[in-house]
Design a protein that fits this description.
alpha/beta; 6-stranded mixed β-sheet; 4-stranded antiparallel β-sheet
């Protein structure tokens, strides 16, 4: 499903990633862990085709990410750090806007808004402005948006940051079941070891831009 090989990225003289290889198959939930500056966010941005690498190769579901980035984005849901969303719209309006950007047919879009809202337990909040949401609610809304077009790959940058115990438990349950029906790949970064144990099937540890370990969660 994902095959990223020998990915390198520098920012000026700073090495962000050095020959990082990550392979993932359908149904895996991979946690990227490591200190701040280890390269987790950079790797996620490259997998999402938001940021180009300096060298290396990436294929998602057999699609070359460099020659056909738009096709990769069409099958990828990505929530960057900070969970950005338009504060002037309600959740329903924002989800519909994002679905239209993805050129989803109107009938399917209406159905998917209902479905992702129910899955993420925000149906009662659909009429609420994004500006009125708590941090946890905003993150949940962004997860709903990422799932809107039923992506095969879900990329999440530090989704557990700032959540209380209840929010962490809810997010853990949602992510642990998000691949149950269609075997999507989930790759997420986190600093929370409890969140890793609750969600991940594999842990990839980064240190100063290199992979230092890659192991199954037992």
């Amino acid at each position: 499903m994902i095959e990223a090989v020998d990915i390198c990225r520098h920012f000026g003289k700073t090495r962000a990633l050095q020959r990082v290889t990550l392979r993932a198959v359908a149904g895996e939930r991979i946690a990227l862990v490591g200190r701040n500056g280890a390269g987790k966010t950079t790797l996620l941005r490259i997998l999402a085709t938001v940021l180009p690498p300096d060298s290396g190769s990436i294929a998602v579901d057999g699609i070359d990410a460099f020659s056909s980035p738009e096709l990769v984005r069409a099958i990828t849901g990505y929530v960057p750090e900070g969970a950005p969303a338009d504060p002037d719209l309600t959740i329903r309006e924002w989800l519909r806007f994002r679905g239209k950007l993805r050129r989803m047919p109107a009938r399917r879009l209406r159905r998917r808004v209902r479905e992702v809202a129910a899955f993420c337990r925000i149906s009662a909040l659909l009429g609420t402005p994004v500006s009125a949401l708590s941090g946890g609610q905003r993150k949940t809304a962004c997860l709903a948006e990422a799932l809107l077009d039923e992506p095969q790959v879900l990329l999440l940058d530090d989704p557990a940051a700032g959540l209380d115990a209840e929010g962490m438990a809810q997010l853990s349950a949602m992510l642990a079941s998000a691949d149950a029906s269609d075997g999507r790949v989930i790759v997420f970064s986190t600093h929370d070891e409890g969140f890793v144990r609750a969600v991940a099937t594999r842990v990839v540890r980064l240190d100063r831009g290199t992979v230092v370990s890659d192991s199954a969660v037992t």
